[in-house]
Amino acid sequence: MLQQGLSEYFDLYLVDNKKFKTKNSYKLDIAKNFLELKSILKSKDIIIHLAWDNREDFPNNKIIPENKIMAENIYRAAVETGVKRIIFASSVHASDYSNIKKVKISPFDDPWPDTPYGASKIYIENLGKYYARSHGLEVICIRLGGVNPQNKILYQEDPNYDKVLLHKEDLIELIKKCIECKKVPNNYSVFYAISNNPNRVHSFDNFLGWRPKFPKK
Length: 217
Hints:
- By secondary structure, the chain is an alpha/beta fold.
- 31% of the residues lie in helices and 14% in strands.
- The strands form two sheets. It has a four-stranded parallel beta sheet, with helices on both faces.
């Protein structure tokens, strides 16, 4: 979705553990091949880090160490190769929203993860905070809602999916803003990204001034 939506604006390079036939794509396990990752990142400006082993996901209780290792390698490789900014895909599951009925969850609140998956995302956010302060790396952590190509509410994935649906069009516009912004305040920001759902419980607060445009009324 992102590659399709952003390729007309930016030169994109895809790194995945599967082989793609698209231009500028690399097959690489970033948890195991640090030096090769560094080689790919040379002369690149921004990393959008989406990689995740979905065996660790909401609502299960599994922990896959490689998810943290991938993020650790990404941060370290970014600093060592001079990449200036990382956009990290965190999750709304960083803070439990299952019993919340009105808009009250803010990125300024202490997060209370609902699963080990959410806790892993918080660890990676906090690691980004360290790199932002100690190494001057710009880090944007986006606590993404549920995204799917059809913009459907998938109750089979989450009984509260109607609260956190993020339309793909909103996601693409948000990532574009994250790439194009001139400066990240204090080198670090974390915020929620969900669409304007009638039952949403998350604040839209973010330094970009981004607001979702979907669903259309």
